[in-house]
Write a structure and sequence with these properties.
Blueprint lengths: L5 H5 L1 H5 L16 H26 L4 H29 L4 H17 L3 H16 L5 H14 L10 E3 L6 E3 L8 H7 L5 H6 L7 H16 L2
Antiparallel strand pairs: 1-2
């Protein structure tokens, strides 16, 4: 199953900026400054290009302008993935303690925006990084959901949305246990799903979602 989830990618910073279950102790004297600068640039490339594309999608920009902005996003992703995988393969997962928060987040963002095979390769490393206190637990939740979605499984934390081709509306990709999704989100440092839904101008009603789930699952298979 293939799907293009532009909105969750573009709004990553907003979704991950809420209260986290993680805390990091950062000693500036122990940071790898040269590597931090490289990763800071990658972070700005990744987020800056996506915000520009997002801004264009909200305006009356021409299709050509939007396509051009998305082309920049794809080119950045390709270039940055080569750099990031080389860094991870050499140094292992680098946390905020190693390269600062933006530097560490750059690693995650590039993997989160990569192809499925790359995400599957590094998912176990990110699971370990959470246990070792080297990345945000919310990062793991987002990647677990994205991999599940791309593998055709129901997501756990409700972080992934798609546009229903039939209705034209945004909706949550099938969630495995919608009755307890907020409990699971809380353990990973994610805000309540009702608050998250508002980022996409949606109202979350678990009973309505369960009622609509068969149609949502059908629509998701068509992506």
């Amino acid at each position: 199953m293939k799907a293009f989830f532009t909105f969750t990618a573009l709004l990553f910073i907003a979704s991950a900026s809420f209260a986290q279950v993680n805390t990091f102790s950062i000693d500036s004297a122990k940071l790898n400054k040269p590597l931090m600068l490289v990763l800071d640039t990658i972070y700005k490339d990744d987020q800056g290009a996506r915000y520009r594309a997002q801004d264009l999608s909200k305006t009356k920009a021409s299709g050509a302008q939007t396509d051009s902005a998305m082309k920049v996003v794809r080119e950045n992703d390709t270039r940055d993935l080569i750099k990031v995988t080389a860094i991870i393969d050499k140094y292992g997962w680098l946390g905020p303690q190693d390269v600062g928060m933006n530097g560490s987040q750059a690693l995650f963002l590039v993997i989160q925006h990569a192809d499925l095979a790359t995400q599957q390769k590094y998912l176990p490393m990110i699971r370990t990084a959470v246990k070792d206190g080297k990345t945000l637990s919310s990062n793991l939740a987002l990647l677990e959901d994205r991999v599940a979605m791309r593998e055709g499984r129901n997501q756990i934390y409700g972080s992934q949305l798609f546009r229903n081709k039939t209705t034209g509306k945004m909706c949550f990709y099938p969630i495995a246990d919608p009755d307890h999704v907020d409990e699971k989100r809380k353990t990973m440092g994610l805000q309540p799903i009702a608050d998250y839904a508002k980022l996409f101008s949606l109202n979350w009603d678990v009973e309505e979602y369960k009622k609509d789930l068969p149609e949502i699952e059908k629509a998701a298979r068509l992506q």
